[in-house]
TrEMBL record:
Gene3D superfamilies: Glycogen Phosphorylase B. SUPFAM superfamilies: UDP-Glycosyltransferase/glycogen phosphorylase. It comes from Deinococcus yavapaiensis KR-236. The keyword Transferase applies. One of its GO terms (molecular function) is glycosyltransferase activity. The keyword Transferase applies. It comes from the Bacteria. This is Glycosyltransferase involved in cell wall biosynthesis.
Length: 411
């Protein structure tokens, strides 16, 4: 086990130590400039956890493997992109095994000593050299078509075999993974997402400017979607509900921040996502005067986008592992309408939003109508959202993970 020593105060509120921690981002793209380059939710979580751990005094690196190599430093975290090894394919027992991404990671952990290697979207941990291997599960691996389910179960079992610690971002995910892995080896640590008070106050203070930039007035009711454009995110269900509401009221504006290429930063986006975005844009064309397509928004600019809105909608139809966008919006004081799926329903409650069945466009439309017509309800939900969002900070997430590291170090 690592030689790092932990010093904890009597209340266990803060700990300081010297550990070398390597975060590994699997298939998601790692941005060279995280303040300006849009990222997936998993990449953002890995970045923010690494940043918060570095702020606690640790030496932290965040690594990915891709077609090109580079290095950068962000918020005290060393960002590393290793070049893949396209020749690293072997045949074993009639199967072709692809180690083109895994081999550079393995070699890196053998050149450098890390007390913890903490992986995200990395189901294969074997041969990684470190005293403590952590597998962080952000998505429901078992929410998959029947044809893929056997392989996903094998992934879970392989992770349990190779990891010293498995972390899930919600209790829902722990239950899902726990069907095929020992519950004792799986721990839940909710993601953060809440913006700091300074960021919130600055963005809310500039709300009028943010709304003017969207060409909306105080009379408009701005519905916001933030995220990728793909079928599992349910964007078309939101669009269909919006179209009906737009026919009823010209006050309604739909703002869309994101796109099909959100998860493809640095990698090739899926063709099916591009096609899905084309479908979304076709549906919205007749309502273009009531639509604001913002495209991919730099993370540093997102608080202003949230501040300009009146309600945030998270219409996912998949079993979301968490609800990062929901937590961000709640911290900005936005009521949230969200699908009752997976870990998303752990983040959003009736204190700060409305939950609707997934893919139920009528229920989504009714929720939008309710908030459009009831400013008092919007105000009470906004206050509840702000209060609930305080449970989801990256500092808290990082400290809980450090305590889990410490519990394993002592074994």
């Amino acid at each position: 086990m690592p030689s790092a020593v932990f010093y904890m105060d009597p209340l266990h509120e803060k700990k300081s130590c010297e550990m070398r921690i390597l975060h590994v981002l699997g298939v998601a793209g790692l941005p060279r400039d995280p303040d300006r380059e849009p990222t997936s939710g998993v990449a953002r979580a890995a970045l923010e956890i690494a940043r918060a751990q570095a702020a606690e005094g640790h030496e932290v690196e965040l690594l990915s493997v891709g077609q090109t190599s580079w290095q950068a430093v962000w918020q005290g975290v060393k960002l590393i992109r290793l070049r893949h090894a396209p020749w690293a394919h072997i045949r074993l027992l009639g199967r072709s095994l692809d180690f083109s991404r895994h081999l550079p990671l393995v070699l890196y952990t053998r050149r450098k000593h890390f007390d913890v290697v903490h992986t995200h979207l990395q189901p294969y941990l074997r041969f990684i050299r470190t005293p403590l291997r952590v597998a962080h599960i952000h998505n429901d691996l078992l929410d998959a078509p029947a044809a893929q389910l056997e392989g996903r179960i094998a992934d879970v079992q392989r992770i349990e075999q190779d990891a010293d610690l498995i972390v899930t971002v919600s209790h829902y995910l722990k239950g899902s993974i726990g069907r095929h892995a020992s519950s004792e080896s799986v721990k839940t640590v909710h993601n953060g997402g809440s913006y700091s008070r300074d960021i919130v106050e600055k963005a809310r203070g500039n709300r009028d400017d943010a709304r003017r930039s969207l060409k909306v007035t105080d009379e408009n009711f701005v519905i916001l979607y933030v995220g990728g454009f793909s079928a599992n995110k349910g964007v078309l269900h939101l669009v269909n509900a919006f179209e009906q509401l737009a026919l009823e009221s010209d006050r309604v504006i739909l703002a869309l921040a994101g796109g099909a290429k959100l998860w493809g930063q640095g990698e090739r986006p899926r063709e099916s996502d591009d096609q899905y975005q084309d479908m979304v844009e076709q549906h919205l064309r007749p309502f273009s005067h009531q639509v604001r397509e913002l495209g991919l928004v730099a993370p540093k600019d997102l608080p202003s986008v949230y501040a300009a809105a009146d309600v945030l909608v998270v219409p996912s139809v998949c079993q979301e592992g968490f609800g990062l966008v929901a937590a961000e919006g709640m911290s900005m004081g936005l009521p949230v309408i969200a699908s009752r799926v997976g870990g998303l329903s752990e983040v959003v409650s009736d204190r700060g939003g409305l939950l609707v069945p997934p893919a139920d466009e009528h229920a989504l439309l009714e929720a939008l109508r309710t908030l459009l017509g009831d400013a008092s309800l919007r105000g009470s939900l906004a206050a509840g959202a702000r209060s609930q969002a305080t449970n989801y900070t990256w500092d808290r997430t990082a400290q809980q993970l450090l305590r889990l590291y410490a519990s394993k170090v002592g074994q």
